[in-house]
Specification:
By secondary structure, this protein is mostly helical. Helix content is about 70%, strand content about 0%. The longest helix has 28 residues.
Length: about 100
């Protein structure tokens, strides 16, 4: 059976790479990049924070391989980590305003 958490981790890795190597391009549609002083630094900031859900997904994949019956409950742990990161990015985006 395919481990769903590995698929989520792969997709999160793509997101982290997109933010890390995205340069100064506006990648978040909820952020007004005209108010950001350094878009490149902001995207790197976002990429660093997005590694938390990536790490949670990898940990969940390992734990699910050991205990397959916890596949569904551990998905909620991923969503909680994603919400924490969204709040963390929103709080930290004030440091990048002009």
């Amino acid at each position: 059976m395919v481990n769903v958490h590995l698929l989520i981790a792969f997709l999160m890795g793509l997101c982290v790479a997109a933010f890390r190597f995205g340069g100064g391009r506006p990648l978040l549609n909820t952020v007004d990049y005209s108010t950001i002083a350094d878009a490149r630094a902001f995207n790197r900031f976002v990429a660093a924070r997005m590694t938390l859900p990536l790490a949670v997904s990898l940990g969940n994949a390992w734990f699910t391989a050991q205990h397959p019956f916890l596949l569904v409950p551990l998905i909620f742990l991923f969503w909680i980590s994603l919400l924490v990161v969204v709040i963390w990015i929103a709080a930290g985006s004030r440091d990048f305003s002009k």
